[in-house]
Amino acid sequence: MRLSTLLGPDLKAVLTRGEEALRAALEDVHAEDIAEIVEDLDVSDATLIMRALPADRAADVVERLPSDRQVAILSALGDVDAAEILVEVDPDDRVDLVQELDEDRRQEVLAALEEREPEVAEEVRELVGYHPETAGGLMTTELVRLGPDTVIADAIAEIRRLSDEDQAETIYYVYVVGYGDRLLGVVSLRDLILARPDHTLSEIMTEKVVTLIPSDHQERVANMMARYDFTALPVVDEHGVLLGLVTVDDVVDVVIEEATEDAQKQGGIVPLEDSYFATNLREFVWKRGSWLVVLFFGQLLTATVMRRYDDLLARTIDLVIFIPLIIATGGNAGSQSSTLIIRGMTLGEISPRDWVRVVAKEISIGLCLGVLLGALGFLRAFLEDAELDAVRLSGSVAISIVAVVTLASVVGSVLPMVLRRFGFDPAVSSTPFIASVVDVMGLMVYFGVATFVLHLAF
Amino acid sequence: MRLSTLLGPDLKAVLTRGEEALRAALEDVHAEDIAEIVEDLDVSDATLIMRALPADRAADVVERLPSDRQVAILSALGDVDAAEILVEVDPDDRVDLVQELDEDRRQEVLAALEEREPEVAEEVRELVGYHPETAGGLMTTELVRLGPDTVIADAIAEIRRLSDEDQAETIYYVYVVGYGDRLLGVVSLRDLILARPDHTLSEIMTEKVVTLIPSDHQERVANMMARYDFTALPVVDEHGVLLGLVTVDDVVDVVIEEATEDAQKQGGIVPLEDSYFATNLREFVWKRGSWLVVLFFGQLLTATVMRRYDDLLARTIDLVIFIPLIIATGGNAGSQSSTLIIRGMTLGEISPRDWVRVVAKEISIGLCLGVLLGALGFLRAFLEDAELDAVRLSGSVAISIVAVVTLASVVGSVLPMVLRRFGFDPAVSSTPFIASVVDVMGLMVYFGVATFVLHLAF
User: Fold this and answer.
1) Which residues contact B421 (CB under 8 A, 6 or more apart)?
2) Cα(B353)–Cα(B340) distance, rounded to whole angstroms?
3) Splitting chain A (458 residues) into consecutive groups of 10 residues, what average pLDDT does each group show?
4) A284 to chain B: nearest residue by CA?
């Protein structure tokens, strides 16, 4: 049950009673829950709520809205209100938000922001240049950076100050920088608290720092965080200059988002921007239809192949009735292989250079599975009340299944690696795509085998 | 390139030079990188390395190994060595590890642990009862818990002590507990540092705490963390008694692991325990073969359906050549729908109670896509040099595509919801499974439509 349904009539009543009443009603509600309400209201009611909230609370709510809602609300609010909220939004979210606005609106809001907080505005202009799905796009510039000679006690005092003014995304790491903001080391808050207050940062810092560069893709960032168990990683440029910081809470969102995108690509859909119910018919038809049309044209080849074998097919329908069984079985085996390889590449476990090992492995797996399923196919065909010689028919079906399953396993594994090797997204070789390729191959194998076996004299 | 390949000959040389040399060589290497080396060596060499490391470093390495490796190494080490490492392993990882050991070995190691650290051993025995994929299985019991009347200065001193003795998984939250360990509130380290030292915890604590219960599934835990942007969440029992704490770094691992499992289920594979290359042929044949056999039996129905329509099929192969095209197009549309619904349910965006809205949406999407693809099918069939009347053939193909695509969209969306509703894992309705169901339906629709259209007088 959505909160807004639950609160429905009460909420409507409060909305008409003005800002004061609204502010009082929302005082104790978690920002996440206000966001859920705002998401379900129409834009004008939602804007009323946003105006009633203090700017910092409004910012917490905005951060939790889906991107189309954020844009709608920031556009409905005046430039000044929007700028006031933007100042309070986390820097990394702020940039994403400004990036979502259309060009005109972006300039208006940035101008209003410039007037209020020139430094913030400049920082946004700088960060807007990074792609949102990279470390540069995910990072915040609000971090604790101090010189190597800072005494522990002073460092703690500085953390207090920054935290008090809400100018640090995380206070759990202090980054030690030297000349030209070059990153020298890192000190955790834990180390700070445990150290003697008169020591300096350079005495207790860890010099081997795992770092990111701005162009690192978010998937790599997530894998690094999971691998090294850090709650934040610094971003540096090619000269080792500290640019910003990516925190683990942003990474959880990223991992969930990536998993959704990957699942949709695997299912043959152009990834959606929003949730299922928030996506409209036109977008669905476009994002599903474009792939379906491509796959349809691929599938047209099956009709062409079958027409080429019309003599064989016209002789008896005994062969025809096993067509769906054979091509679908191949498609299933191929889908399994492509799923395993695509996921393995995403996790960094498999690289296109491993192709020899992969092909060797898939051939042995494919042969085992093929023989197993071929035996079942032989039995089924043998029991068929057929016009053709039972052994020849069953033999054709069984041999075809072995060949198709093995071939499909190899194709399903090699195709994603080839795509990756040439710089394409391997997820293009989605389950339906592999199935289509395998359908065409499967028909050719089956008709080839059947022609050979039926002409065989024995 | 794997580190072990890079270091290969050097490593072998060092391994023969004894513990001292090994320890010196590994001193500056990150635990993650040692883990990579240990993963690639055979068990006896790996055990040499583990013995050479101090227990706390060995524990860091063990935490990073895949589970089969962990078990192999803990079994190869003596009970006492194993217990010594276990003491240093993070409590939540420790329980997972003990859970992986076989029953006999588990009792031996726990006995050795009991002798060294009776409290730790008892805690493990307690936590082993929770399923590893729940909040109970993920949680650690090493957290900072203090009474409400504790003065800030004392709280900070206590955090120092616990952190110094490595007895807190996170020091970023202090949990305030009352009588019987009931959770009263939470104070972040940030709040502590900012507060006046003579205040008490009860004065600054947040009383509205978002909590987990031990049986919460890890997917829910991950969604809660992403939603509320916390770096740790407390676990309480039904009476509000604080049991433990789940930290965000464990959740990142969990989200990646879940995404892998989901992808494999969607591809029609029983999820693998290990990485692609670490999985052997027998396991692959079993985990892929079991689904392929089930799907194969389902696909046998296609042969049965086709045999029932052999009169129709024997008349001309014009109808036959469009069979793969029609059933594959249906399968693709159905796969898209099931992918969207399964992912939506995983994220909590769609619930089985939404079925009316989903079906309405899928009917309209399916009709749009069906008409689009049906038009293409009409053109292709019309251009075919067919024995049948071109309009009748093309009409049969087009109408069938519209019907099959719409039906497939509905079935692909409803089936996962029905499975979830009756307590099954919706991922059982994998892409290949939906395709198989749709193949059988598609044939029946196509032959039904063709029979009707071809007999139609016009």
Assistant:
1) B352
2) 16
3) 55 74 78 82 82 85 82 81 83 79 79 82 78 84 90 87 74 88 89 82 89 88 78 89 86 81 84 85 89 88 88 84 92 92 86 91 94 94 84 93 96 92 80 89 93 79
4) B365
Measured N-to-C along each axis, helices A248-266 and A323-346 cross at an angle, to the nearest 10 degrees, of 160
Across B40-191, the runs of DSSP E, i.e. the strands, are 144-146, 173-177, 183-188
H or E segment at B62? helix B55-63
Burial class of residue B296 in the structure, from the number of CB atoms within 10 Å of its CB (0-12 exposed, 13-18 middle, 19+ buried): buried
Chain B nearest C-alpha distance from A237 (Å):
23
Number of H helices, E strands in chain B: 22, 5
Chain A neighbors of B302, CB-CB under 8 A: 321, 324-325, 328
Q: B401-435: buried (b, 16+ CB within 10 Å) or exposed (e) per residue?
A: bbbbbbbbbbbbbbbbbebbeeeeebbbbbbbbbb
Strands B173-177 and B144-146: parallel
Distances (CA, A) of A137 to A141, B93, B119, B421: 11, 33, 46, 40
Euclidean distance between CA atoms A222 and A241, whole angstroms: 22
pTM: 0.72
Q: What is the pLDDT of residues B412-446, one digit of tens each?
A: 999 999 988 888 888 777 888 888 899 999 999 99
Tell me the C-alpha distance between A216 and A220, whole Å: 6
**Tell me: the pLDDT tens digits for B173-227?**
899 999 988 999 999 887 887 788 889 999 999 888 889 998 888 888 888 887 7
Judged by CB atoms closer than 8 Å, whether chains meet at B347 and A275 is answered as yes
**Residue B187 CB partners (closer than 8 Å, separation 6+):** B155, B173, B174, B176, B201, B204, B205, B206
Under an 8 A CB cutoff, do A225 and B343 touch?
A: no
pLDDT, tens digit (0-9, with 9 covering 90-100), for A126-154: 777 788 788 888 888 888 899 999 999 89
Two structure tokens written together for A290: 């474009």
- Cβ of B293 within 8 Å of Cβ of A327? The answer is no
Question: Residue A329: which of B210, B262, B299 has the nearest Cβ?
Answer: B299
Q: Under a CB-based contact definition with an 8 Å cutoff, are residues A346 and A417 in contact?
A: no
- Which chain A residues are Cβ-neighbours of B443 within 8 angstroms? 324
